[in-house]
Fold this protein.
Amino acid sequence: MSKRHRHTPQRHPFASWRRMGVMVVLLFLTLSVGVSTLLLIYSMEVEQEEQAQEEAYYAKEQSIHERLRQKLQESPPPPPVVVAPQEELPLIEEKAPVEEKPSIEEKPTVEKTPTPKAQVPKTTPKVTPKIPPLERYIPKPKLAIIIDDVSYAHEVAALHRLGLRLNFSFFPPSPRHPDTAHLAAKEPFYMVHLPMEAMGYDKEEELTLRIDDTKERMQARLATVKRDFPKLTHFNNHTGSRFTSDYGAVERLMQVAWSMGLDMVDSRTTAQTQLPALYDAYGKRLLARDIFLDHESEVSYICGQMALAVKKAHENGSAIAIGHPRKNTIAALQACKDTFESVQLVWVKELH
């Protein structure tokens, strides 16, 4: 039998070269990673060194500024430089020189050429700044416009669109106008239009104050109002011709109001109002209505009343006008708002 021939696997001639190539690539990658790492470390060190140098530079500058500041604080302040006002030198008229003839005995003298004197610099003319007219520095008269009977959101919105400073006087909350306290809370300043007893008025508001109310009842009423309107400082009377003409009633009311930090603006719904006498007796200043804007409903009439209120403010230094959130009143305030350019529209509290 013939011996079986053993098959010896032959190695590929390029196998060793491939292994060598792989090793070279791996070595190259290892070297690349190492070099990149070294470069990254080096750049970080350089950056840290630059940052340290920059911080040292700023610290040095700050130290220098601090030393300078300390020296300036320690050294006495320089005396103020007083610049004397420059005055224009009077002009001296030069006379023509008179030529004198030498006498026989005297020898003619040779005139010396005068040494030129230093020229005096011409003074710069003093510029007087233009001073605006004196009227600009005089404060404008104050005018407070109170809008009574404010009750609903659409009224507040219409009044805000005028862009005027108006004093909204809200009714106390009631079933007829329940949202007045909520509307007032959004205003920077407001008043309360407090219902008081009138002579022969058939549309009386709820919880109207009467002349026979006790001081305790008035106190309870004002406490409720103050609870609903916590920022309240001033109120004025709605109707109230009978109430304000009774000295005892207004005295009881105001004693309670003053104890709560409240004050009243007299709407002057009657010529017999006793509030001026009461305030005089207590040594207090009474704020009272000067002009009704919309006693009549025509826009032209209301514009005329606005002009009258401005005239009153100029005469007395201040004035109070009262209107209502009616359609024609708002139209007149919009159409004739330029009437108020010569006065300052203010809150009522600014008149004290």
Notes: The CA atoms of residues 175 and 206 lie 9 Å apart. Strands lie at 142-150, 167-170, 190-196, 234-239, 263-266, 287-288, 291-292, 318-323, 344-345.
